[in-house]
Structures are given as C-alpha cells and as structure tokens.
User: Which sequence fits this backbone?
C-alpha cells in the first residue's frame, strides 16, 4: 500500500444565508483545493453529503461537483453516513490512493441547509436516527442528545452547568477563523443564561444549522514529494478507521459507551502506532457538548465521567494539554452536516502545515480528526502527521 | 493489488407492494449472501441507495443494514450515484478488497419506492437530473429519455416502433427468474399497442417503480480458494471502472454520445484485457429502451444507429450472439433504483456460476454488467470471469 498525503485544501466560509448555490459552493471548495495543491486534475472525487436529495432536490453530487469544478468525466461519487459523511468520503479517497487506484483524488463534503423551514430541516436531520424507533416518534437530534446528556449527568452526578467549557472554547477559537460562522466569544455566564432547549441541553450545547463545503486533495508519495520540492507543506494520513453501531439508542448496551467510536479510535491508534499522549490536537465532533465529552473520554484524554473537567480546566484550549476544535469546531465554525468531516481535516491540515494563522498551535506534529454520524452509529477517525 | 472474487450472492424478490420493510429487505439480501458465501462476517459493508432519505426518512443505511444483518460494528457506508448507486457501492467494495483493506466485504443495494404517491416518487427520481436546469422545470426521467430517443430517431431515421426488441426480450427472460417483478411475455403487437407516455416513448420502453435489495460477498484470493475447496463456484471481478459526465443534457456535446459510458466501458475492457468479442453476456441498464440501445452501441456490439437491429434480429436473446439482461433486466426483473446495479452483478454471477436455472446460458465465461446514474452522468462497468 502507498502512503497517503494531503497536498492541498479548500473551503468556503460557513454561512447561515444561502449566499452561494450548491453548485457554486462545491465548485469553489474543490477548485480552491486543486489550486492549493497546484494540480490541474485528479483521478477521482468522493464527496460527503447527507440530505441534498431531500432539501435541495439534487442527488448524484459526485458527477455534479466534478462537472462544476472542471473535473468532467472522472470517477465521482457521493457518500452518505449522516453527519459522518465527510470523513466517510475521505476514507474512500484514502483507500483509492493507498490501494494504488489513483495517484491523487479530491475528497470533499457539502451541505446546504438554511433555505428550508426549521421544521423541515430538523425532520430531515432526524433521518440519521432509527426513523421507525426514533424520528417517526418525534425524536430529534436535540432530544436524543438531551437523553444521552441526562444519562451522563445521572451516572456521574454532574450538573448540566458543567458542560460549558466546550462551547466557550469553541467560540473563542472561531474568532480566529475567518471561515467560521460565529465570531463572538461567550463566557460561562452567557452559557449558563442560554435557554434550555430540551431537558438539561442548552442552546449553546448545540451546533448551528448552516451551509458549507470543504475539500482536500490527497496524493500518493510521488505527488507528495513533488509538492515538497515546490516548497509546499505536506501532511501524511497515517490512520483511517471506521466503526459503526446501532442507529437507535434503545439498541445500545449502554448509552454512554459509543462502541462504534471505541472501534474507530482504537483502530486508528493501532494503524498510526500512536496513543493519546502523542496527539497534539483533536478535531472532534462537538455537534453537542455531550458528544464532545464522550469523545475526549473514549479517545483516552479523560477518565469516564471526567470529560467536562478537561474543558473546565482549560486543557482543551489552544495552549492546553490537548487542544480541541482549534478553529471553532462544529459548535462555532459551524456544522454543515455532510461537510463537517472535511472541515475538520482541512483545519487539522492547516495546523500541521503551520497555516492556521492566529490560531496556530506551536509545534503541532500529530492531529486526530473524528467525525460522527447520528448519535454514534457511524464514527470515522483519521490521524494526520506532518512530514516536514 | 489482490484479485477480487464474488463468493456469494443474495437477493429478495422485486415487488410492487411493500411486503418487507427497508430493514427487512436489506437484512434478508445481506444475510442470504453471507449464507451463500458460508461466512459469518466480513470487514465492511457498502450499500448503494438513492432516495431512502427522501422517501423512507431513513439515512445512514450503512450502519442501519450492518446492524440489521448481524454485522454490528463493522465499517459500513451508503453510496449514492442515483440509479448507478449499486455498482458504485460494488466499486468501493472492489477497491477495499483489491487494496488489501479487508479480506471480504458485502456490497449491497436497496430501494423502497412504492409506498409514496407516483408524483412524489417521480419527483424524487428527478433529483438525479440537473435539478436547476431540468427537474425544477418539470422534466422527469421519462421526458428526458424521450428527448434522447427523439434525437436518436431523427439522427438515424428510425421509427419509435423499432425499439421493441429490448423490452420483449427482457420480459421473456424475466419469466424464468423467480425474483423478477414481471412474469408475463409481451410480443411486438403488445409493444406497439402500449401507450405513448411521452413523445415516442411507450409505457413498455420504461422500467417500473418497485422495491428490492440485493447483495454480494466479495473476497480476496484466500477467501476464494477456501470457497473453491468447499465446492462453491467462484467468479473473479477482472474490471471495475467508473466514468462521469454532466448531469444535464444541455451540457452534453452530443446527446447521443454518452462520454461517461465511453470512459467506463473502455477502461473496463482495458483492465480486463478483453473486448466485445470476448463478452458472453451483458447485463446492461435498460431503464429505458433508448438507454439499452446506446449501451450496446457504446460497448461495441453494434454500429452507432444499429443498436435496435441487434434486438430485432434476436442477437440479444439468451441463445443469441450477445445475450443481454438475461434475468429480465431493469425492464422486467424491475428497477429498484439503488439496488439495480447489484441485481445486475448477482445475475451475472449466477450465469457464470451456472446457477441461472432455466435461464442458464451455455458456456458463459465472461460477463459485463453496466449500471447508469441519471441520463448517463455516472456509469459504472464491471467485468466478471468464471475461474472454474
């Protein structure tokens, strides 16, 4: 198998208004990535998307985006794993290059969600749940995450007020990211004042509905060496691993143990030959504060029940022990669902390439990015390492 | 790269009533395939689906199906390329085994389409078009195929009455396939009597809306040798190739030249080291008679403009020069869109494994299966060869 490298990245700013069409967004992200990688074309394009067929009446986004981005004719497909679609597309691209099927590929993600009513969008998002057992009975991702949060609070005797460290850090980091949706700091007082939208879950515990598209060019060793000769930063993907679990919460053995995440992160550590102590930053899936909490615990950065302490103590800040969501995360950069997994990897790449601007983390060599579909039904983990 | 083999197949009968739920259909097809391959589990599952998120409110069909089929936890993702979704999923599975990422995988396809109104289903299918330029303006797949058919008739001076050979043969072949939707022969008189539903396009030129799911187990050489030792038929996938083009017809250089198909079939021939003369049967994408016509021409079985002659002269019958759609094709086995690409490969496998029952073709050694998304925006071609 060939080594796989990120040799270029592109994105559009995350927005709450539909300033660009689906076609324009995807074309912009992909052409930006191609330009950044200084390549004219690639062998294939894999794009993550969850609900364009329902909200935009546009399917077949692979061929659609290839055409829009000047890549007419190449292999191109759309990949769907709910909010984990982006990283799932990246995994296909990783395999395509690693397996020698293509010298280079584009992996991308896109979602356009703000042009429909909130009710339509919320219902569309609930298709990531077990529809028969959850969505059809009125459950939404807010209510499902509220259930998990309540179970966590009950098990560990923790107050709902304890989760604020995650959104506060995310909002702080987003201020230094020109592509983020929010550029507004929040403090603990603001967090505590924010409305409970379902049980203990506050508005500030939830990521926003928005639009966005991001893309990466992946290349084999030959492509990476050429990029390096041209003075470009190159980052290797040293692990790519997916795990799954039931969609519905009722079928989990324990709502607080995400088995798909356990499989995914353990496999990633094994592939890359690293452990939690080696990770310099962690782009995790903070769609909800409780998901961020479970993620830092499952990845080995905190004992079960102590994930919120990590955030409270500042360990997740950019100068902390394990910086997370360094460009704002899903909470404050925004969560255009099918694109988020690629935004995470774009941001990790920028950190390792020392292109993260005012949010740059010093001496970052190894980053982990983890993207979740549903309440943990699909989890995709990638580990990235700088090679320069 | 490792060789890739089909070591088992499963399917559910194609239906017009929703006799099984989405969960039951996908679980049945996958567990049938696992049982046929005599394996307990696999490394990953890739499932083609186009519109379940819209028509069934169920996304994340990868993890959903893995769970339903007793494969909880494995890598599992859904793949979307409109009506080409099934073969696109097979392509990912091919890469996963060929590249050494997994020893064995399941590739599957599923669609459930008959529980909604005809209007809702027709509109959902139109998301495979360029929505802005076609679907939103009222175009459907019937109207788009009627346009291509009209252009073909005008260019070659051919009557709309000339296309009947394709559906007539499909219906004849479906009579011997217990899993087909239709078990009713039609003759040319019936074809000519069938209603024109759009321009020259008759009802019998169009494939039906229906439900279905099919699955294959793919394995590496070690798995194939084990299967052979156990006396099971084994078929090698010697080519897997995808090509794309614009979604919208207005952006094609020539509506009658499907560039994505040309790329796909030429690449497949090159990979397998074969040409049209070597192909013993061709499971093509006869969603519409005009698509079947263009497919036999592009694959080199007929000169441009003479595709319908092949059907008229009986060359596509099971005892003809190049048997096509030997188990009924999309027209008469049925076209549950995201599943069709896998049904095609299941049927080709059965022919090469000499398990095609009364529809068995004598001495079939090499089969080609070709699956199309939209009006040719995504085309995926696989070549299968028996190894026993």
Assistant:
């Amino acid at each position: 198998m060939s080594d796989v490298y990120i040799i270029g990245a592109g994105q559009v700013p995350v927005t709450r208004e539909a300033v660009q069409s689906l076609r324009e967004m995807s074309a912009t992200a992909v052409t930006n990535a191609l330009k950044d990688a200084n390549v004219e074309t690639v062998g294939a394009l894999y794009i993550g998307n969850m609900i364009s067929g329902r909200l935009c009446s546009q399917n077949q986004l692979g061929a659609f985006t290839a055409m829009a981005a000047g890549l007419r004719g190449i292999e191109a497909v759309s990949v769907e794993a709910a909010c984990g679609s982006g990283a799932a597309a990246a995994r296909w691209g990783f395999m395509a290059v690693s397996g020698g099927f293509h010298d280079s590929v584009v992996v991308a993600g896109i979602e356009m969600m703000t042009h429909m009513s909130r009710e339509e969008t919320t219902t569309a998002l609930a298709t990531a749940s077990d529809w028969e057992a959850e969505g059809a009975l009125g459950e939404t991702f807010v209510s499902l995450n509220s259930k998990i949060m309540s179970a966590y609070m009950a098990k560990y005797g923790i107050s709902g007020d304890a989760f604020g460290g995650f959104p506060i850090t995310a909002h702080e980091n987003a201020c230094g990211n020109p592509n983020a949706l929010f550029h507004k700091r929040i403090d603990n007082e603001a967090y505590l004042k924010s409305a409970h939208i379902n049980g203990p879950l506050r508005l500030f515990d939830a990521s926003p509905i928005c639009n966005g598209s991001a893309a990466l060019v992946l290349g084999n060793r030959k492509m990476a060496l050429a990029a390096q000769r041209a003075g470009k930063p190159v980052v290797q993907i040293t692990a790519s691993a997916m795990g799954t679990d039931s969609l519905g919460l009722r079928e989990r053995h324990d709502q607080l143990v995400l088995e798909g995440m356990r499989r995914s992160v353990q496999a990633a550590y094994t592939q890359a030959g690293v452990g939690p102590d080696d990770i310099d930053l962690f782009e995790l899936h903070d769609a909800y504060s409780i998901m961020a909490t479970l993620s830092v615990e499952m990845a080995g950065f905190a004992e079960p029940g102590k994930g919120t302490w990590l955030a409270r103590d500042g360990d997740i800040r950019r100068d902390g022990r394990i910086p997370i969501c360094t460009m704002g995360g899903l909470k404050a950069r925004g969560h255009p669902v099918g694109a988020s997994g690629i935004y995470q990897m774009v941001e990790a790449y920028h950190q390792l390439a020392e292109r993260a601007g005012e949010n740059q983390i010093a001496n970052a060599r190894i980053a982990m990015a983890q993207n979740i579909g549903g309440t943990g039904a699909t989890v995709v983990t990638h580990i990235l390492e700088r090679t320069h």
